[in-house]
Amino acid sequence: GHITAETLMSILRDKDSGICVDAEGFRTAGSMVSVLPRDPALPCVHFFTATPDPSRSVFKPFVFVAGIKPVPQVRSPTFPQDPAKQIPRFQSSVDRRHELYRRHQAALELMEQDRERGQKLLETLQELEKQGLEGMKELLE
């Protein structure tokens, strides 16, 4: 049949198959779906969650172009006194989670603590993802 980006996102979110894992101290890290047009004049569009558990994440569209600058919300913070670079190494720890990850964790807590508000938030995220998919389709047509 026809496999779409939505089909692949659905597969990556499938917990019953074991593809999407959120149990026993392990959680699926990040997930990615790429749309690679046959026409070389069209851009490839990549969708990243950049957050764990794709069943509760939004796939965000990204197109690689020359001179791209990463958004600060998905860059891990840097530290002047980074314990990974000091000798002896790792004598202390720092929070390396990027802003998007921290906000995702807060959203997961909300989903678990207040099901109604959490469901509304998930619906909002799904709508944003839908807009990204529609934008991709317009770009590639």
From TrEMBL:
InterPro entries: Peptidase_C69
GO biological process: proteolysis
Highest rank taxon of the organism: Eukaryota
A molecular-function term among this protein's GO annotations: dipeptidase activity
Family, per entry: Belongs to the peptidase C69 family. Secernin subfamily.
Name of the protein this chain belongs to: Secernin-2
UniProt source species: Ptilorrhoa leucosticta
Native organism taxonomy: Eukaryota, Metazoa, Chordata, Craniata, Vertebrata
